[in-house]
Write a structure and sequence with these properties.
alpha+beta; five-stranded mixed sheet; elongated; 22% strand
């Protein structure tokens, strides 16, 4: 069975270009984002890692750790970082997991249990290792997105989704296309009386759709 929202994510020990980590310990009390790639030295993935590097201050401002995973080894990761930093124009300070044995890719259901990497493999052999997982401080999966190899991930959307998840942790929901500073939705499970006490003024658009200022 695949990993579903609100499942506790797998814990694992892995080698990275920053050394050995125990995943749950590495997350600690932070939010975390794990983003996966089918192979080092691939064009789309290089631009994606570059985008993540450029957002370092944004991740830090949100108390979020980021970590990559690719099915190549530590030495390849270290060499690839040079290309990533050239593309990004900044340091890529996040670790990259060396998932040569595919343990992480299988644990997160990006590859089937029987998958293996053949000699002379190409990115097509691990094409499904193209996901983003946003994980809460409780170690539970909050959101996942999977992309094909030919479509670069939109990390502005990943950042927006992270903002939405951190806002929803305050007991509200966010509408379509929501960004920080806009009104939020009061869950239908909250009565009008309780909504008034908790949020103050709110707008009733429909009996089940009520909007209010975002809590601070």
């Amino acid at each position: 069975m695949g990993l579903r929202i609100n499942d506790t994510v797998p814990d694992f020990t892995a080698e990275t270009d920053h050394g050995t980590i125990q995943f749950h310990d590495w997350i600690g009390d932070s939010w975390a984002i794990l983003f996966s790639h089918p192979k080092d030295f691939t064009p789309v993935c290089t631009t994606e890692f570059g985008a993540v590097a450029q957002l370092a201050a944004e991740w830090e401002a949100r108390g979020t750790k980021v970590i990559g995973v690719s099915v190549d080894g530590v030495e390849d990761h270290k060499k690839w970082k040079g290309d990533i930093e050239k593309v990004a124009g900044t340091t890529a300070g996040f670790p990259i997991i060396a998932d040569e044995g595919l343990a992480v890719s299988k644990a997160f259901d990006m590859l089937p249990a029987e998958a293996y990497m053949p000699d002379g493999r190409t990115p097509a052999d691990s094409a499904t290792v193209r996901s983003v997982f946003i994980i809460g401080p409780d170690k539970q999966l909050k959101l996942s997105m999977t992309y094909p190899m030919t479509v670069g991930r939109n990390f502005a959307e990943v950042l927006r989704a992270l903002d939405g998840l951190q806002m929803s942790a305050k007991g509200v929901a966010t509408p379509a296309n929501w960004t920080v500073g806009e009104d939020v939705i009061i869950p239908p499970s909250v009565s009008d009386e309780d909504a008034k006490a908790k949020f103050g003024d709110f707008e009733t658009v429909l009996p089940y759709l009520r909007k209010t200022k975002a809590p601070t």
